[in-house]
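Re: beginner question about structure tokens

> Can someone show what the tokenized structure looks like for a real chain? I only ever see the sequence side.

Sure, here's an example I had lying around. Input first:
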Amino acid sequence: MQSDPAEIKKSIRTYGIVGGLLFVCTAITVAVNQVHLASIALAITVALVIATMKGSMVAAIFMHLNHEKKWIYGALILTVVFFIVLITLPNFTVADTIGKISPYTAVANAKAEKAEKAGK
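And the corresponding structure tokens:
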């Protein structure tokens, strides 16, 4: 925590500015909702952009995450790693052939049956 009066005033000013910006972003959100944009995709995109801006301001300033560089980068890297795992995991299940006859085996079995029938 800061104990210098000038630093405290600076922090209060920063909180006030961010609070004002959050209020403005909320007003923009309400205004965009009243406009009824042309497509749903555009409306969702605008809503996500505004929500991302508001969430970033709250996290950085009010949760003091702008001072936690190492932890933020660590969490970001961990998120990317888990995202990659969750994206690739279904690919392993699709490529799983346990209990299934491979196409090569099926073709070989069909040829063997055909040759057996021709031999009789």
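Each token stands for a local structural state, so reading them left to right follows the chain. The chain has two domains: 1-67, 69-120.
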